[in-house]
Write a structure and sequence with these properties.
about 425 residues; alpha+beta; Rieske Iron-sulfur Protein; Naphthalene 1,2-dioxygenase Alpha Subunit, Chain A, domain 1; 7-stranded antiparallel sheet; 4-stranded antiparallel sheet; 9 helices; globular
Length: about 425
Amino acid sequence: MLDRVSPTITSLLNARLQGHSLPAGLYTREDVFEADIDVFFRKHWICVGLECDVPEPGDATVIDIGASSLILLRDDDGAIRVMHNVCRHRGSRLLDAGTTIVSRLVCPYHQWTYELSGELVYAPHMGLDFDKECRSLKQIAFRSIGGLIYVCLSDEPPADINRLEEVMSKRLAPYEVGNAKVAHQCDVIEHGNWKLTLENNRECYHCSANHPELCVSFVDLDFGFDPESLSPEDKAQAEEHLALYAERTASWEREGYPSEAVEQLVDCATNFRTQRLIISGAGESQTPDATAACSKLLGTMTRKDLGDTHLWGHNSWKHFMGDHAVVSIVIPLSAGKTLVRTKWLVHKDAVEGIDYDLDKLTSVWLATTEQDADLVSRSQAGVADPAYVPGPYSPFSETNLEKFATWYVDRMRANGY
């Protein structure tokens, strides 16, 4: 928690009306941003990367979260490690931002040297009686869930991560995410608060008007609609789609592929939702024509007709299909600026130009991410306007936004705000 709880934050939380968006200050104030980092990015589990970000021993990548810098690496035994990027001498950063390959971690300042396990092995000019054993790099609590790396910077990580692990380990197993390959990565800076980024992702009310590329394969009806506003023809189509969903989900479940929606969105610390979604059109993948982008399927997958296993968290969203996966990670940079880091995964042996075309693989979500960045920027400008008043959520298409806002306020209060 911050040294002093701002009464402004408490009053803003108290002012939030059920069924409505958050008060402006919760999106725009720097003191709220600092509180958000403290509560949601230090004391809760967050997704920061993938096992396949560091496929070989010595591979390392740095992830910055607020003032904290993390090293994700694979050690000499092939095990994943997550450590603070802080030398135990005088605090210097060990590695610069980005990815690298190291045999040992050597501090550039005074050459204190650490094994990839974090153990201090060399500290020059510290005297014969200097105890290196208590100067290892500080380890960070982490879980690899189906190859997704979740960390918690708190000394008391929430225990309900167990539910996420229980649900997703089986669902993700056939995709072998930890043994995949990152075919492409794209970093986009959205000029908006991280909560606006998450809210935008948690509804498809805006999809048909803003995401023509995504809507080739994505069904916006999946996330709610007002049946009374539909024409008789559209209503019949929606009912037919819901019937198909029930039939397809039951079939997938019978064949051993967990598909039912599982939600842990309120009254919890670790926030997530997962479901196997139908892919529209050709039904294979989120590509310009909804056919598979990669001929070599992920992991042990043998079918292209198993839909899209989606997973939300409070700082990420992911889509796992037979031929590839898309993983997006959200990292707040300031009250009005957010990094969205998107990675496209393919089978580890897939070769660009032979097994997949990079443009076909990436074009849908590259376009969607840019479109969303524009929408988030517009939202940030709007909530910063003195004329902004929190508006009502759609009871049909924005129910997940209501749950997110409720969870956000509850977790802030649980941490003393």
